[in-house]
Amino acid sequence: xxxxxxxxxxxxxxxxxxxxxxxxxxxxxxxxxxxxxxxxxxxxxxxxxxxxxxxxxxxxxxxxxxxxxxxxxxxxxxxxxxxxxxxxxxxxxxxxxxxxxxxxxxxxxxxxxxxxxxxxxxxxxxxxxxxxxxxxxxxxxxxxxxxxxxxxxxxxxxxxxxxxxxxxxxxxxxxxxxxxxxxxxxxxxxxxxxxxxxxxxxxxxxxxxxxxxxxxxxxxxxxxxxxxxxxxxxxxxxxxxxxxxxxxxxxxxxxxxxxxxxxxxxxxxxxxxxxxxxxxxxxxxxxxxxxxxxxxxxxxxxxxxxxxxxxxxxxxxxxxxxxxxxxxxxxxxxxxxxxxxx
Length: 342
Prior knowledge:
Elements: H1 3-10, H2 19-30, E1 35-38, E2 44-48, E3 54-60, E4 65-71, E5 77-82, E6 94-99, E7 102-109, H3 118-121, E8 131-133, H4 139-143, E9 151-154, E10 158-162, E11 165-168, H5 171-186, E12 192-198, H6 206-215, E13 219-227, E14 247-252, H7 263-275, E15 280-284, H8 292-295, E16 304-312, E17 319-322, H9 323-340
Parallel strand pairs: 3-12, 3-13, 13-16, 14-15
Antiparallel strand pairs: 1-2, 2-12, 4-5, 4-9, 6-7, 6-9, 7-8, 10-11, 11-17, 14-16, 16-17
Helix pairs in contact: 1-5, 5-9, 7-9
């Protein structure tokens, strides 16, 4: 696995607490641009090139996670979820609390099934009935390490699952952030190009709203992940996307509640893929949105496309993706921007 990809995937950054990954993105953008800044909302914005059109490329930095809500007298921690997480994946997960004095290791606990009554076992376990165990015997001991409001991430992990299948924490959307860096390094289109690492996407596409209002681009492309359908129990009509079959070109999000890609942008993306023999898949999403849904409605409207990397197990402690799909996303974004620049 590329060392930069590994570093980005393992960085911390739940919504509103993206400073660690933001510093990383800032430093990478500075290698290829003298015009890089972090705005009032925490978005990292880099600019390069000149031309008649302004083109915005966006990938969100934030990851789903937890936040410390309460510390019991026995030293156990109650938490809230930040972003969409299925409660069923939480029990026994290893987590890191990003405390001011340093990282604190913890394990998510719940009442053992051995002690549950029959009616309890029939009910889905909810996060409100879970806690984080950091090994402290009292509230006073725990408060020496952590505070209310501290961010909590899943324990960082990354690596090669098999061949070109990679895994890691925060695949959504750190693979998009990695692609954004690579695109910005390589792109030479005759346009004013902005690379934006956005904040708080997982809780309302917020960073995309503020940054796109500021830039006011002529075109935009959001880089994100999408749900792969190549695992058991997923029917093709739900998702026909497969790892290794290419970048996903999204046409519609959340059955139209999110972005609906206009025909001009749709044709630019598909024509660029065909002309350059870049592997792609078409993505029609019943649920879920990307930064594109916010960007394309900003000001008087921005023609916007979405290029997504099919991934398994997003919004969990570990996702899986195919590195060739990342490469396809990079290549297609570059070729599409070249068309948008004309």
